[in-house]
Structures are given as structure tokens and as C-alpha cells.
Write a structure and sequence with these properties.
By secondary structure, this protein is an alpha/beta fold. The protein has helices at 8-13, 15-19, 23-29, 45-52, 64-75, 80-84, 118-128, 146-157, 178-187, 206-214, 218-225, 229-243, and strands spanning 36-39, 57-61, 86-90, 105-109, 135-139, 191-204, 253-265. The protein is 40% helix and 19% strand. Helix 8 packs across helix 12 (229-243).
């Protein structure tokens, strides 16, 4: 579990572009309904994409800075219809501000892997979903991607001081896999219609990726910010060298990415 409090700007510059890799798939598996609820909207990529398709969207996030970022993005939309079709509220599961069975589609893009009680979160997604509504969820698998594996290697080599673990207690955690996410959907009374891995390539500038980590995003960000200035500088020097093999001819980094997708609905 991890917190995104106060890191919206750094997240938008870096890891938001990673999480956006699943947006086309999430739109494909959630046909427009009466209301599309996007839970944990972050900086708004999925919610705005859904609104551009003509969906009526309610985007929620428990972090005030993320809500502000999504509202700002909606305001700046060239297509005025997208902004008008999108409402944004500060809220999150398991206290979603909707009546039972009121959402025609529900998305939770990389949300269940960050909450303190994944099962309670999925139960709330199920509660607000209409009888025929698809609920589409993504998580990161247990193994870190190469960008984070390199950061971990660089941190250890630089002698970084560990930070307190944010892993869930065993009774709250679940296997970070397609089967693991499917199992907690089934525990919530849902029927799983799709459970699979997604694969794509994430392109990002090294400076933008480093800005996200230095800005405190996720576990890597918390670890980086906990170090002395000298250790942070050594980590950055080392990790940039480890990222170098992923650099393409245009100077961008190109990382293979794997995520887990589960789509479920009420039986």
C-alpha cells in the first residue's frame, strides 16, 4: 500500500503516463452506461478519455491534489463536451458517494493495490455497480518492472537506509496476480468475466522518471526522500546508468510493462 498525498505534480509528470497505458483497454471492456464511475482517478487520464467518448463520468479520488489536477485537466480540455460530461469529487472506496447499484460502468485503474483494505474496496465497487455493469480493475503484479528493479539495485548499491514497510498484514493482503485479484472479486459476490495480464511498452524521458521518484511517488519515492542528499545523488547516478540500456535512438527510455486486468460483474 502507498500514499500519493502531496505528489500529484510529480505523479502527473512521471507515473501517470505509465498508468495511462491501460486506458484503451479499460474503455474497451466497459461499454458506456448511465454513469461511468472512475475510482482513484489520479490526474484524470482515464476519466477524461471516457468523457471524450461521450460518457457521463464521475471521477473520485481521496487525495485533494489529485482531484484538483483532474479538474484542471478537464477545464483545459479542448473538447468542451468532455469537460461538461465529467464531474470530480474527493472520495474513495470503501466510502463511495453513490447509491447502491447506480453506476453503469466502474473502473479502478491501479487502485486495489494501493488501498489499506483491498477486499473492502472491491466490495464497495460491487455495491455501487448496476446489475449489468462491468467493473474493470487493474493492479501491478508482484514483480517490479525493470524501471523499479533498477532503482532498487541502485539504492542497495548506494547504501540507502530502508524505510518502514508499507506491506499489508497477511490477513488483508492478496496475491498480486490475475488469479489473486479475481479471487477477491469473487469474494465480493462478483462473476469474473476476464482475468489476464496486459503487456505494453512505456516510453518516458529519464528526467521525467527521476522527477517522479524524487518527488516522492510510490515506494521508490518514499525511499529516495528518506535518504541524505549525498545518498540521493549516488542513487540517481547509479540508476541512470542502469536505465541506459533501455534508451532508444530518440533519447527516450522504453520499458516493457506488465499489469493485471480483471473484469467482473454481478451474476
Amino acid at each position: 500500500m502507498s500514499s500519493f498525498d502531496g505528489v500529484a505534480g510529480a505523479y502527473r509528470r512521471s507515473f501517470a503516463t505509465l498508468c495511462a497505458g491501460t486506458v484503451p483497454t479499460l474503455l474497451e471492456v466497459t461499454a458506456p452506461g448511465e454513469l461511468h464511475l472512475d475510482v482513484g482517478c489520479g490526474t484524470g487520464d482515464l476519466a477524461l478519455a471516457a468523457a471524450r467518448e461521450g460518457r457521463r463520468v464521475l471521477a473520485v479520488d481521496p487525495d485533494a491534489d489529485m482531484v484538483a489536477a483532474t479538474r484542471e485537466a478537464a477545464t483545459l480540455e479542448v473538447a468542451a463536451s468532455a469537460g461538461s460530461a465529467l464531474s470530480v469529487e474527493e472520495a474513495g472506496a470503501p466510502l463511495l458517494p453513490l447509491p447502491d447499484r447506480s453506476a453503469g460502468a466502474v473502473t479502478a485503474n491501479f487502485v486495489v493495490n494501493h488501498v489499506p483494505d483491498p477486499r473492502a474496496t472491491v466490495r464497495d465497487l460491487a455495491r455501487v455497480a448496476a446489475p449489468s455493469a462491468p467493473i474493470a480493475m487493474t493492479i501491478w503484479p508482484a514483480a517490479p518492472g525493470p524501471h523499479l528493479a533498477a532503482f532498487g539495485e541502485a539504492s542497495r548499491a548506494a547504501g540507502a537506509v530502508p524505510v518502514p514497510s508499507t506491506h499489508l498484514a497477511p490477513e488483508l493482503d492478496f496475491p498480486r496476480s490475475a488469479d489473486g485479484l479475481a479471487s477477491i472479486a469473487q469474494e465480493a459476490g462478483l462473476e469474473v468475466v476476464r482475468a489476464k495480464e496486459l503487456h505494453w511498452t512505456w516510453r518516458i524521458a529519464a528526467d521525467d522518471l527521476m522527477a517522479g521518484i524524487a518527488g516522492g511517488v510510490g515506494g521508490a519515492g518514499r525511499l529516495h526522500q528518506a535518504q541524505t542528499g549525498a545518498v540521493r545523488a549516488e542513487i540517481e547516478e547509479r540508476v541512470r546508468k542502469l536505465w541506459a540500456p533501455f534508451e532508444t535512438a530518440d533519447g527516450m527510455l522504453s520499458f516493457p510493462v506488465t499489469a493485471v486486468l480483471v473484469v467482473a460483474s454481478h451474476p
